[in-house]
Amino acid sequence: MRVFFSTLALCLTASFAQAQCGGSFSGFVNGLKDEAASRGHDRQSVDQFFGSVRQDPKVIAADRRQGVFQLPFTDFARRLISSGRINTGKSKARQYDAVFDRIEREFGVSRGVLLAFWAFETDYGSFQGDFNTLNALVTLSHDCRRPELFRPQIFAALKLFENGDFDPRRTTGAWAGEIGMVQMLPQDILDNGVDGDGDGHVSLKTSAPDALMSGGKMLQHLGWRAGEPWLQEVSVPDNLDWSQTGLRTTKPAAEWAAKGVTPRHGQIAGTLPASLILPQGRKGPAFLAYPNFRVYFEWNQSFTYVLTAAYFANRLEGGPVFDAGNPEQGLSGEQMKRLQQKLSQRGYDVGEIDGILGAGTRAAVQDVQQQLGLPADAWPTPALLNAL
Question: What's the superkingdom here (predicted)?
Answer without folding.
Answer: Bacteria
